[in-house]
TrEMBL record:
Residues 50-183 form the IQ motif and ubiquitin-like domain. InterPro entries: IQUB (IPR037695), IQUB_helical (IPR057887). GO terms for cellular component: acrosomal vesicle; motile cilium. This is IQ motif and ubiquitin-like domain-containing protein. One of its GO terms (biological process) is flagellated sperm motility. It comes from the Eukaryota.
Length: 376
C-alpha cells in the first residue's frame, strides 16, 4: 500500500495541478483508507481463525489417549478417567459453538450446564452461570441469532476457560500441563525485554548479527508494525542469487545459507551504501553480492557489491587486489573489516566449525540433498 501510494502521488503530481490535483489527492486518500480497512479486516479474520485452530488443537490434545509401544512393538492406547472427562468437555464445547441447534435443545444444554457448575464455588463458574441465565432469558424472549452472537461468544470463551482451569476441570489438563512443564524444563528460557515474560528460545527470532535473545517473535512483530516499512524483496532476490551461485560451486557450507534478508539488507545498505563499488550504480535490480576472492567461500567479509556485468568480469579474476587500484582495494578491505566486526558472532561460529572439521559433516548430507533443493 505504501509503495502504491507513493507511486500514485508521483503520478498525480506530474499530471495535475491546483484544483484537480487536490481532488485527486482526496480520492487517493479515500482509496488508501479503504485498502487499509480491508487489510485490517483480513488481519482480524486471520487472527480469529488462528484462535479457533488453537482452541481445537487444545481440545484434541487433552482428549488424546495415552499411547506407548509395547515390547512386541505394537502401539498400545489407554483412556484414563481424565481423558474420558476431557472428551465429554470437548463435545460440550463443540455443542456450545454450534449454530444449527434448535432453541429447545439450546435451552436444555444451557440448563444442564448451569446445574453442573453450581457445585463449584469459583468466580469464573459464577460468571458463567450468570451468562447462561441471561442467554436462556433472551432465548425465551425469542431473540434472533444476530442479537445473541456476542453473548454466545462470551459464553463459549467462559466455557473454554472453565476447561482450561485446573480447579474446575477435574484434572483433565494435568497431562498437558506436565508435558508443557517438561518442555519448558528441557528448553533454554530467555527473558523478553519488551513484554517482560520468560519464554523458551524457540519463541525468539534469529539472525546472523544477534549475540543474544532480547525481543520475542510477537513483540518483534509489534515493533516492526510501528516502524517504517522496508521492502525486502530486492534483498531477498540478492540473497537467492548468492545462494544459487554457491550451489553451482557446490559450496554447501557457505554462510550464504545461514544469512537472512535482514542480514543482506544490513550488508547492502549499511556497509556498501546501496551502490556498486565500481560504477556507483544504485539500481537495486542490477546489484549483486559476489565473492571478492573467487577461490574462497562467500561470506560477509568476502563479498563485493557490483552490477551483473561487473560481476561477470570480476569472477574471471584470480587476484582482484592486483587488478583494481589501491584505493578501491583499501575501500573493499575496510568494508570486510566492518563486516567482521558486525558479524562477530557468525565469524566465531564459522571459525569453530572450520577448525573442528564439523563443516564436513554438514556438507555431506547437503550434497546428498542437492537434487532435492528447490530451484530459485
Amino acid at each position: 500500500v505504501d509503495r502504491w501510494k507513493h507511486a500514485e502521488i508521483a503520478r498525480i503530481s506530474q499530471l495535475h495541478s491546483k484544483g484537480p490535483k487536490i481532488a485527486e489527492f482526496t480520492l487517493l486518500l479515500d482509496k488508501e483508507v479503504e485498502l487499509l480497512r480491508c487489510i485490517e479486516a483480513y488481519r482480524v479474520k486471520v487472527k480469529e481463525d488462528s484462535r479457533k485452530i488453537k482452541e481445537k488443537q487444545f481440545l484434541e490434545e487433552i482428549s488424546k489417549p495415552v499411547a506407548w509401544y509395547g515390547r512386541d512393538g505394537k502401539l498400545i492406547t489407554m483412556d484414563t478417567v481424565e481423558i474420558q472427562k476431557a472428551r465429554k468437555l470437548k463435545e460440550l464445547y463443540n455443542s456450545f459453538i454450534r449454530d444449527d441447534v434448535e432453541v429447545k435443545e439450546r435451552i436444555e444444554l444451557l440448563v444442564n450446564m448451569k446445574f453442573a457448575l453450581q457445585e463449584f464455588r469459583h468466580p469464573l463458574a459464577e460468571e458463567t452461570i450468570t451468562l447462561l441465565d441471561r442467554e436462556c432469558d433472551l432465548l425465551v424472549r425469542r431473540c434472533d441469532d444476530q442479537q445473541l452472537e456476542f453473548l454466545r461468544r462470551r459464553v463459549a470463551a467462559c466455557v473454554l476457560q472453565l476447561i482450561k482451569t485446573s480447579e474446575l476441570n477435574s484434572g483433565v489438563t494435568k497431562r498437558k500441563e506436565v508435558r508443557d512443564y517438561r518442555k519448558i524444563e528441557n528448553s533454554r528460557l530467555q527473558f523478553c525485554e519488551m513484554c517482560h515474560q520468560v519464554k523458551i528460545n524457540t519463541d525468539f527470532p534469529l539472525n546472523a548479527k544477534m549475540s543474544g535473545f532480547t525481543v520475542c517473535t510477537s513483540c518483534s512483530w509489534k515493533d516492526v508494525s510501528e516502524r517504517c516499512w522496508i521492502d525486502m524483496t530486492p534483498y531477498k532476490f540478492i540473497l537467492r542469487a548468492v545462494q544459487r551461485d554457491e550451489r553451482k560451486r557446490k559450496c554447501w557450507g557457505s554462510l550464504a545459507f545461514v544469512l537472512q534478508e535482514k542480514d543482506i539488507f544490513f550488508i547492502v545498505e549499511k556497509l556498501w551504501h546501496s551502490h556498486s563499488a565500481i560504477s556507483e550504480c544504485t539500481e537495486m535490480t542490477e546489484l549483486r553480492l559476489c565473492r571478492w576472492r573467487v577461490n574462497e567461500d562467500w561470506s560477509p567479509w568476502n563479498c563485493f557489491l557490483v552490477t551483473v556485468q561487473e560481476m561477470k568480469a570480476h569472477c574471471k579474476l584470480e587476484d582482484p587486489e592486483a587488478v583494481y587500484d589501491e584505493e578501491l582495494v583499501q575501500k573493499v578491505l575496510n568494508k570486510h573489516k566492518l563486516a567482521k566486526a558486525n558479524f562477530e558472532q557468525l565469524l566465531a561460529v564459522n571459525k569453530r566449525f572450520t577448525e573442528s572439521g564439523d563443516w564436513a559433516g554438514i556438507r555431506a548430507p547437503a550434497i546428498v540433498r542437492a537434487n532435492a533443493v528447490d530451484r530459485i
